[in-house]
TrEMBL record:
It is an enzyme of class 1 (oxidoreductase). It comes from the Bacteria. Residues 5-348 form the Isopropylmalate dehydrogenase-like domain. This is D-malate dehydrogenase (decarboxylating). The keyword Ligase does not apply. Coiled coil: none annotated. Belongs to the isocitrate and isopropylmalate dehydrogenases family. GO terms for molecular function: D-malate dehydrogenase (decarboxylating) (NAD+) activity; lyase activity; magnesium ion binding; NAD binding. Its cofactor is Mn(2+); Mg(2+). The lineage of its organism: Bacteria, Bacillati, Bacillota, Bacilli, Bacillales.
Length: 360
């Protein structure tokens, strides 16, 4: 039996509520499956920690996390702590320190999930976004000159290295080649005449090594339009940090809302732990009410099972999530129901347990 050490950072707002359901489901799966077990270690980092200590995580927090196989993160951000402080002090710090340069965002409209566009279905909305996660527009490079003076100037520099650009594009080509799907690159080379021209050139160069992968390339504004008007044209998508951040929220809206938005921050070489998180944020307006939707947290747990090599379990957990949506009897208010966070977790436990038992 394989033991996986998972660092749990419940974080802020609804983070602790949804992550606890994920831990509950993972424990039950491990108990029933018998091939793995989990050791969960909790860390109290986040905005409350910042208010008390003046920092988002312990000084040696990165060193503490290094020994874990994965990190399970709830949410970051809460009123009173500036967003750039909370983001750069915890989430982005972990991504960068652990070279989690691949961000994986599944955009799939599960059966039963609401969709805001006419004709949206699981067949037409089923795309996988591969987002560069370590540099680009979020490199943190720049300056703030003459602050507070009339000549005040701010510089925010996008950083696109050969190494960083090539490795994320190659990763996406590999995914497309293995799955037999098309690969679409999204950039903005007409306006960003250095970074995005470079991106497009690298996309073409790497593509010469994958002659069997059909490719497309769109400007980001056109891609945003096509995601609404013709989402079926997108299968595997690769894009930069900023564009990926924006477009995947459009994708979340297409695929049932932020309560179903899961994400993985991957270090493919596994030198460092990878991190799995729901993308919905801390939602302070409903924190503590027990009505937060935990399905995104459970979907990110499914991604963790995939990462650990148990794709069958990851698929069974996703099937259980979809079954909850199809049944429409146990849903949180954001999905039109009146059930609690815990009730959703309990129903997923029942469904995935039945799937595991039937697969024996």
């Amino acid at each position: 039996m394989k033991t996986f050490k998972v660092a749990v950072i419940p974080g802020d707002g609804i983070g602790p509520e949804v992550i606890e359901e994920g831990v509950k489901v993972m424990k039950k799966i491990a108990q029933l499956d018998g091939r793995m077990q989990f050791e969960f270690t909790y860390f109290p980092w986040g905005c409350e920690y910042y208010v008390e200590h003046g920092k988002m995580m312990a000084d040696d927090g990165i060193e503490q996390l290094k020994s874990f196989d994965a990190i399970y993160l709830g949410a970051v951000g809460y009123p009173g702590v500036p967003d750039h402080i909370s983001l750069w002090g915890l989430l982005l710090r972990i991504r960068k320190e652990f070279d989690q340069y691949v961000n994986i965002r599944p955009i799939t409209l599960l059966n039963g999930a609401p969709c805001p566009i006419i004709g949206g279905s699981k067949e037409t909305i089923d795309m996988l976004f591969i987002r560069e996660n370590s540099e680009g527009e979020y490199a943190g490079a720049g300056d703030w000159l003459f602050k507070g003076k009339p000549e005040e100037v701010v510089l925010q520099t996008g950083v696109f290295s050969r190494k960083g650009t090539e490795r994320i594009i190659r990763y996406a080509y590999e995914i497309a080649a293995e799955s037999g799907k098309t690969l679409t690159s999204i950039s903005k080379a007409n306006a960003l005449n250095y970074s995005m021209v470079f991106w497009d050139e690298v996309f073409e160069e790497v593509g010469n090594e994958y002659p069997n992968v059909s490719t497309y390339s769109y400007l980001v504004d056109a891609a945003a339009m096509y995601m609404i008007k013709d989402p079926a044209r997108f299968e595997v998508v690769v894009t930069s940090n900023l564009f990926g951040d924006i477009l995947t929220d459009i994708g979340a809206a297409l695929a049932g809302g932020m309560g179903l938005a899961a994400g993985a921050n991957i270090n493919p070489e596994r030198v460092y732990p990878s991190m799995f998180e729901p993308i919905h944020g801390s939602a302070p307006d409903i924190a503590g009410k027990g009505i937060a939707n935990p399905l995104a947290a459970l979907w990110s747990a499914s991604q963790m099972f995939d990462f650990f090599g148990y794709e069958d379990i990851g698929e069974q957990l996703l099937v259980a999530i979809e079954k909850v949506l199809e049944e429409k009897t146990v849903l949180t208010p954001d999905l039109g129901g009146n059930s609690s966070t815990t009730e959703i977790g309990d129903r997923v436990v029942e469904l995935v347990s039945a799937l595991i038992e039937s697969a024996r």
